[in-house]
Structures are given as C-alpha cells and as structure tokens.
Amino acid sequence: MQSFLRVMKFAFQDLGRNFSLSFMTVFILVLMLLSVNTLWSLDVLTTEAVSAVKKQIDISIYFVPSATDKNVNEIKSYVGMFPEVTEIKLQSKEEVLALFREQHKLQIEALDALAELGTNPFGPTMIIKTKEPKDYKGIINALNVPEYKNLIEAKSFDNHEDAIERLQNITNRIEKIGFGLTVLFALISFLIIFNTIRVAINTQRVEISIKRLVGASNWFIRGPYLVESLLFTILSVGLTGLVVFLALRWIDPYLAVVLPSGFSLTNYFESNMLMLFGAQTLAVLLLTVASSGLAMRKQLRA
Amino acid sequence: MIKITGVTKIYPTGTPALRHLNLHINAGEFVSIVGQSGTGKTTLVKMLIAEERPNKGTIEIGGWDITRINSNDVPYLRRQIGVVFQDFKLLPKRTVYENIAFALEVAGEHRRRIHQVVPQVLEIVNLAHKADSYPSQLSGGEQQRTAIARSLVHRPKIIVADEPTGNLDSINAAEIVSILKKINEFGTTIILVTHNREIVNHLRRRVITLHGGEIINDENEGKYKL
After folding, report:
1. Which of A2, A210, A302 is opposite residue B110, by nearest beta carbon?
2. Domain ranges across chain A
3. Which one, of B159, B193, B195, B199, lies nearest residue B178 by Cα?
4. Residue among A241, A235, A245, A242 at smallest CA distance from A285
5. CA distance B223 to chain A (A)
6. Is B106 within 8 Å of A216 when comparing Cβ atoms?
7. Pairing with A285, which of A87, A96, A234, A267 sits 20 to 30 Å away (CA)?
C-alpha cells in the first residue's frame, strides 16, 4: 500500500514536471475521442433518419366501391402470408369517406361534388407496410393477378428508395471520413504518448539510475509511468464526456425539429453511457499502456 | 563473504576488462582495490552490484551466486550492498533528508521507519545540521557524505565505494575515508576502489592491485604500488 501511494506520488510529480507535454497528450486524446463520438453520433442519427423515412413508406391498395368485406379480407389474408409484410391496416368505405371529408373540409367544391353524387363513391383501402422498401415491388407484383384485377381500382407506392439510397451513400462517406480521422488521431496520440513517456524517462534518467542503485524494484520504476497512462486515460475520457454532453444539449433542440419522432441524442448517450465510455476508456487505456510500455522497454533496457 | 572465482569479462567490443580473476574477501574487511584507469576496477564494482555479468566464472556474496541472479532479485541484492560513486548521484531537487529517505521509499519502507533511520545515518556522517539543504548548497565532501548516508539506510553488510574521493580535496577525502573506517568498525565490509596513493598508504589495510584485468598484487597491509 505504502509503495503504491509512493508510485502515485511520483506519477503526479512527473505529470507536473512535464506539464506542457502532458497537456498536449490529453488534448490529442480528447480530439481523437471527439472524432470517435462524432462518428458514433452520425451513425446513430443516420440510422434514426433512415428508419424514420422507412416508417413513412407504405402501399395503399384502393378497392372498387363494390368490393365486399369478404373480398377485402381474402386479399388481406393473402398479403398477410408474405413474411416481409409487417403491418396491414384496413379502412372501411365509411372511414375513407370520413377521411376525405376531413382532408377536404376547406374545399367546398369537392364536398359539393360529393353531395351531388348522393352515394359513397369510395371503396375500402388497405395500407401495407413491409420490412424493407425493396419488398414493395414483390407485393405489388403478387397483387397483379387476374382474380384481383376487378377488385383493385388503384395501387399507390410512394417510392422513397432513391432518397434512402442517397441518404445511405452520404452516411457511408461520412463514416469513411470519420474512420480515417479516428485512425489518424489514434496514430498521433500513440506517437505523442510514446514521446511523452520517453521524454519523461529521459529527463529522469538520473533518478531512474539512482532508484536502481538503491534497490528499487522494476515495478517501482515502471509504476509511475503506468499510473500516468491511467491518468491520461481518465482525464481524456472525462473531458471528452463533458464536451460531448455539453455539445449534445446544444444540438438536441435542433435535432428535435429535424427528427419528429422525439429522438434525443442526449438520451441515447445517457442510456448507453456505460457501454460507450467504457469501450472508449478501454481503447484509450490500451493505447496509452501500449505506447508507454514500448517507450519504457526502450528506455529502461538494462 | 565475497568469493570471486575465475571471473572473466569481455565487453561486446572485444575489450577484455577482467581475466581469470580469483578473489576472496572476508566479512568485516576493509579492502582497497587500486590500479590505473581501464584495469577493470569499475567493471568489478558493476559486477558486484549485478549491473554487469561475467562471461566466465562465478561471484558469490554470502553464499549467493549473483552471476546467475534473476533480474527480479537484483533490487534485493542492491539493498544489501551500499554503493558510493565519485559523482555522488544525488537528486538535485531533493534535500539531504529526502535524498536519503528516497532509498527507503523505493524499498517500500514505512514512513515511521524512515523518520527513525534517516536521522541516525545523518548522525553517523555528521550531517544532521544539513538535513534541509539541497545538494547544490553542499560542498563536495558533504555531498559525498550524503551519498554514504544513503548507502547505509538498508544496513548493508557490504559497502562498495567507487572512487569516492575522486572529486574531493585532500581534507574532504580524508574525512570520507575516516567515515568509511568508522562504518567498517561497526562490522561492515568496505571495498574501496581508488587510485589515491596517499589514502591507500595511510589506511594500512588490505590492498589488491589490478593491472590489465588481472590481480598482480594482494597484500594484507599493503601499499599503493603502481
């Protein structure tokens, strides 16, 4: 315990003596972690955006007014057999009429025309959702059979595939750039940490030789540098966490406008905090321990 | 105490430092090892503290063959051998007290014991009044006395002093030798590596003369003969 406390004391002394270099190391580590978090956020956001767009896609099957409930239910059962179908909603003739009236309540001419007809001109409507937008083509083809031809008046499919593809292309590019930046920052951090420890060991060469001379164990000599690695890790992850949460609080109101589903990045980070920052702490710790280990192996070889 | 048998050391450059060295030093002896520069004196010191290993032969300290010593055991060996160097090897940003305490700190000694031992060794080297001074505020002799005090904190059975008077004037040199003699009187074996003729002749103790990596003379009450 006594030795451990002394190792801690020497580690803090080293950090203080090489303050500017320690500061630069933590700064670069924070930059690297910020790029990782930005990449992560972008990934979460694009996934959310793509999923929001996908949720809005469906096919509407408009039946002729003479279509009976039996006809409609038969087609519903047929469509329901497809594994890619996730949801089928039915709107009766009356519901379709009510919806029409609601949507056109300000268009007097349309409502007058409807009144002139005297009867409900609409047939039932079936709204189908699938797992992926590409599944819609298969469903539409499946309904293009002679026995349903007289029952179905029209099929509508708002094709959002192009929009999704474009969104995914942009996402992929951002991910590639982000990954490149992360690797670059990781490399710079590695070199800086390696250099920091090397300089620290060089400036303490005399102290190290004296420690050896008076019988210090290898652990006592290496310990402070390992503790320094740990301190670099804690400081950089802590500072990054602070910056990330401040940035998210600032960004979230803007996101709420773009993503109407009420998605909040702050909530996402809060609920995944342990996993996100745990993984980052582990990665930075491995990076710092590996670089300081290499520097020590080179400098303390004797 | 120390048994050196057939030790040969050749550096990777091909320079032979020691050749077939055979030496036996008893517990409590005060031995001066003399010789010109490059005769292998410092190599012998380095081998005694396991900083160098011989190519051939064995070195036993208290029955422990340190030529086969595990690197993890080296710190324990060094706590049993006090070493004093010509350049003092003191930490400039630490006081006399802290420099001495440092040797105990790295060995994991408790603070209470450090407060007990450091004043004792400062008393032995007559430096109690300089405990709070920094090395830069001390004379060469005082710095060397600090280094000796530090070498004493682990109560070593052997002290190896490699040219401890090399940077000192004759008065300070005499004072250092007098402290080493005092320590020797407590039963500690002293190995003094020097080329100071005056000191060696004045000591009237065992003198081993090295030349070309070999012992050319070994006398119990010897004199500097080069």
Report:
1. A2
2. 2-53+163-299, 58-159
3. B199
4. A235
5. 30
6. yes
7. A267
What tokens does A141 get?
Answer: 């083809």
* CATH numbers and ranges of domains, chain B: 2-89+157-219 (3.40.50.300)
The stretches of B125-193 forming alpha helices (DSSP H) are: 140-152, 170-185
Say how far residue B156 (Cα) sits from the centre of its chain.
Answer: 11
Of B51, B78, B89, the CB nearest to A215: B78
A5: contact with B, CB 8 A cutoff: no
pLDDT tens-digit map of A244-284: 999 988 888 888 777 766 778 888 888 888 898 899 899 88
As a whole number of angstroms, the distance between CA A59 and CA A137 comes to 10
From B224's Cα to the closest Cα of chain A, the distance in A is 29
pLDDT digits over B29-88, tens only? Answer: 999 999 988 899 999 999 999 989 999 999 999 889 999 888 888 888 888 899 999 999
Put simply, whether the predicted model's pTM sits higher than 0.90 gets the answer no
**Strand-pair partners of B59:** B4
Structure tokens at B140: 């060469």
CB contact under 8 A, B107 and A206: no
Paired tokens of A64: 């002729």
Strand partners, B61: B2, B64
CB A220 within 8 A of CB B111: no
Question: Rounded to whole angstroms, how far apart are CA atoms B119 and A209?
Answer: 24
Strand partners, B161: B84, B192
Per-residue burial over A133-145, b if 16 or more Cβ lie within 10 Å, else e, is bebbeebeeebee
For residue A294, give how far its alpha carbon lies from the nearest alpha carbon of chain B (Å): 19
B77, closest residue in chain A (CA to CA): A215
CATH topology of domain A58-159: Alpha-Beta Plaits (3.30.70)
A209 and chain B in contact, CB less than 8 A: yes
The beta-carbon contacts of A93-96 under 8 Å, at least 24 apart in sequence, are A93/A65, A93/A120, A93/A122, A93/A123, A93/A124, A94/A120, A96/A122, A96/A123, A96/A124, A96/A125
